[in-house]
Amino acid sequence: MDIDTPCIPLAHIQTYFDLRQTLVPDAEWLERRTQLTPVMVRNPHELLELIVGIDQHDFYRNAQIDYQPGDTGCFISTRQTLALVDQAVKALDMPYLGLAMGNLMTISHHGMAGVAAVTQPTLRGCLDTISRFCAELFPPLEMNGVVEGDIGTFTIHENLSLAPYTHFFLELNMVSFYNIMQQLVAETGLNLHHVAFHYPEPPWGHIYRRYFRCPVLFDQPETALVGPAALSDCELPLANRLMAMAAEKTLFENIPTRAIRLLPLRLRRLLLRYYGAFPSLENAASDLGMSGRTLRRKLAEEGTSYQQELDTVREKLAKQYFQRGGESVTELAMMLGYGDSSAFAKAFRRWTGMAPTEFLEQREAVKAEAVEAAA
């Protein structure tokens, strides 16, 4: 999978990226942008065209998307998705558009995916469902919920670079999921410790603090919602297993997916299952239903290799190990299949630009900052 692989169902993007439904500016904003009062514009489609300066057909055509209304089988690439974001951000002159859109989203904006998630028995089940749907509906991002000791985290990582709009996608998802989680567990009295973003604070960083009612930290090891582990077992008020199953069935009947067939992603998922005892290329190929030669060829066609994918998985697992409290470089080197800690340290520096000990020191500094922010 690369930036031009058509793997994102346009129907999924439309559930939350239809500006006519999502952007509902207030009266003052409308008057400033259009020099018109809301009562002067009665057609919402006309309103969007006045504000943004493009109509729906131009919006897709400018992103090189050949879309016809009613086409439920259209897939778009990451590059085309970024082109949609670029048009909206520039036309609306809102670099913080991800925050605004995320805050306007309700469960209904996520369609059947949202219904299937919030009708799970517990918050852990809800987040697991969100992670699984993300893998199928928006493979450039990867989401994971993890509980370690008394801390629970819900992380979002890029499988593909979404630059220059990384912040848009992370802002949108973090604000949206934060609001939904707060609604689902409101009666428990439990709150998130903090939200973390892996990039430096942007010029509009102060706007983040309008949307999150907890400390917001930047330049962190990973982008995550962080809270007490007890949240994961909270029973959800909308829990209904039959409704959850029906919603998921309806979702995938109406929105086709391709991500499950993308070989690099399938290989990564396979390798993650073998954490601690990674298979050889030949064994991995057998598990994927092909010969080693075929796996090599198909990965090469995707611009990658078995070693590259293995290193990607190793890097992810190494960072998670340290971020969740692990400290033994020797233990981690063995779990990741390295002959000794020096070989692992060399690879780790190649991935992160720092030695494992430096990464651990940074982790402790981040912890101290989070404690100070929460005090």
From TrEMBL:
Q: Is the keyword rRNA-binding in the record?
A: no
Coiled coil regions, renumbered to chain: none
Concerning Gene3D superfamilies, the annotation shows: Homeodomain-like
Is Transferase given among the entry's keywords?
no
Q: Its domain of life?
A: Bacteria
Keywords attached to this Swiss-Prot or TrEMBL record, sorted alphabetically, are: DNA-binding, Transcription, Transcription regulation
Q: Where would one find the signal peptide in this protein? A: none
Q: Which InterPro entries match?
A: AraC-type_N, Homeodomain-like_sf, HTH_AraC, Tscrpt_reg_AraC-type_HTH
Every HTH araC/xylS-type domain range: 257-362
Output the Pfam families linked to this UniProt entry.
Arabinose_bd (PF12625), HTH_18 (PF12833)
Question: Can you name one GO molecular function term for this protein?
Answer: transcription cis-regulatory region binding
Q: Which GO terms describe its cellular component?
A: cytosol
Task: Name it.
Answer: AraC-like DNA-binding protein
